[in-house]
Structures are given as structure tokens and as C-alpha cells.
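Lab notebook, design round three. We kept the backbone fixed and only want residue identities now. Task for the bench partner: fill in a sequence for the structure below.
Input C-alpha cells:
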């Protein structure tokens, strides 16, 4: 990894308190965690970062930065810079896949793991090829089409229907997404999309890190994935968050934080 590859991040709370590291989803940024962190920063040292190709991190000189392996190295380097040996990794969607990758490959750096609306990847090689082709199509659109049209199309997916119940919240999310560079997002989609990432299902039975799986009650697709993950992982706890969909921490930050606090408190008993 190039030495000048660095992630932009924001830190809140007392560095002497237990550290929580937040990893956003595709097209997101550290700003997505603002409300969540405001509810946690009194008791925890909270760090939220912009992954490669996103937010203020922007362009990375090393192409490997846009892969799970490269992004994990950059996150670890940031932890070293902040002198954090181990912390709780909290990931949403794409960020949750990165968090799981780190929990498996950097076990000593992850004391606990929270996966919100996440997946260990696509098990079938055929389905992974199909998804890789779809990700490539979307990356091409990001590079060659109107970004606003891409955003509107992306959020037409059934996955995000519950977000639109609050038009003000939905517009705030869109406004944050508009600050990204679509060419950089295309690099991330190619390198960190589910079509490119090797599946991690086979690692779940051996995962020693305490795991909280958070899924919205209305997110039917990810409820099925979460239940299968729970059945495979002895260390996993599954929590359904009522009246929410795919983006739990945005739709109901209060309930999200309650579930998170309970998990963190219980694991320390």
C-alpha cells in the first residue's frame, strides 16, 4: 500500500474510553453515523471514516485500496496511527462485509463485531459472476451517465423503500451522496462489490469474535441472510429492529443504539 494512502476520519469522545470504529456502506461517508455517534460519544471513543473512493478520502494512488484487502490494510493503518490495538468494528452493508473480513483476517484488532444489514458474500460462483456483471454495468453508468439519474435509480431498489417514508431524511441522504465523485465510486463498486468479494460463509463457524447481527424487521432479504448466519456462528446474536428496513441507523438511531449498547454491555459482563 502506498505510504500516502490515508483515510479521512472523524473522532469523537474520550480516547481513554473503549473504541468503536464505524464503516459506512456504498456511496456513504463518515457523516452517515453522525446521529448514532452523538448518542454514544459520552461513553465511547467513536471513530467514523470515509472508505476509499468515498467522502473526503477520495482518490487513492494505490489501486488495491479499492479492494477488501487493501481497505482493511488502510483501516488497520489508521488504527495504528490512533494507537488503537483493538476495537469494536461496526459496519453497515458494504462496511459490514469489510468488518467481517477484518474480524477474520485481523482477529487481534477486532474485539467485537456488529454487522448491520450485512452478508458474508455470495456463495454460488455462478451467482457471483452474475452480480459481478451487474456491478460492472453500474460502474460503467457511474463513469459515463448522469450521476443524479444513477442515484435515483439506485434508490428505487426495494431494499430502500422504507427510507422514503421520511422524505426529509431521504433527501438528506441523497444530498450527502451527491458529494461523492462517481468515477471514484465506480472503482469501489468494482473492487468491493459482492460480485468481487470471496464469500466468507465457511469462516462463520470458526469465528471467535462476539458478533451482533442487526437487521430491519421489514428487510426480508437480509432477514433470511441474518438467520442463516446466526445458525452457523456460535458467537452470533441476532436482533431484529422493529419498523425499519435496510438502513437501520438512519431510520431509527435510537433503537439502533439501544441494541448496540445492550450488546456491548453484555459482552463485558
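Proposed sequence:
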Amino acid at each position: 500500500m502506498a505510504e500516502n494512502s490515508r483515510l479521512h476520519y472523524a473522532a469523537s469522545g474520550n480516547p481513554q474510553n473503549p473504541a468503536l470504529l464505524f464503516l459506512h456502506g456504498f456511496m456513504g461517508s463518515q457523516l452517515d453515523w453522525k446521529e448514532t455517534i452523538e448518542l454514544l460519544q459520552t461513553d465511547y471513543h467513536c471513530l467514523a471514516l470515509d472508505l476509499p473512493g468515498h467522502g473526503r478520502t477520495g482518490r487513492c494512488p494505490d489501486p488495491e485500496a479499492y479492494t477488501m484487502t487493501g481497505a482493511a490494510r488502510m483501516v488497520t493503518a489508521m488504527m495504528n496511527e490512533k494507537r488503537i490495538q483493538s476495537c469494536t468494528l461496526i459496519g453497515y452493508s458494504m462496511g459490514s462485509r469489510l468488518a467481517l473480513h477484518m474480524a477474520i483476517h485481523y482477529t487481534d484488532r477486532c474485539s467485537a463485531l456488529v454487522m448491520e444489514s450485512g452478508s458474508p458474500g455470495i456463495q454460488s460462483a455462478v451467482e457471483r459472476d452474475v452480480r459481478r456483471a451487474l456491478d460492472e454495468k453500474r460502474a460503467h453508468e457511474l463513469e459515463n451517465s448522469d450521476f443524479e439519474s444513477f442515484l435515483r435509480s439506485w434508490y428505487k431498489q426495494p431494499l430502500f423503500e422504507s427510507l422514503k417514508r421520511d422524505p426529509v431524511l431521504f433527501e438528506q441522504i441523497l444530498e450527502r451522496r451527491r458529494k461523492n465523485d462517481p468515477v471514484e465510486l465506480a472503482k469501489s463498486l468494482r473492487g468491493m462489490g459482492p460480485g468481487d468479494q470471496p464469500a466468507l460463509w465457511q469462516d462463520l463457524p470458526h469465528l471467535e469474535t462476539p458478533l451482533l447481527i442487526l437487521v430491519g424487521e421489514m428487510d426480508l432479504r437480509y432477514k433470511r441472510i441474518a438467520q442463516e448466519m446466526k445458525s452457523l456462528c456460535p458467537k452470533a446474536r441476532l436482533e431484529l429492529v422493529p419498523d425499519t428496513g435496510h438502513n437501520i441507523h438512519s431510520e431509527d438511531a435510537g433503537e439502533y443504539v439501544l441494541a448496540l449498547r445492550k450488546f456491548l454491555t453484555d459482552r463485558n459482563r
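Keep this in mind before ordering anything: The domain at 9-124+198-267 is CATH 3.40.50.1820 (Rossmann fold).
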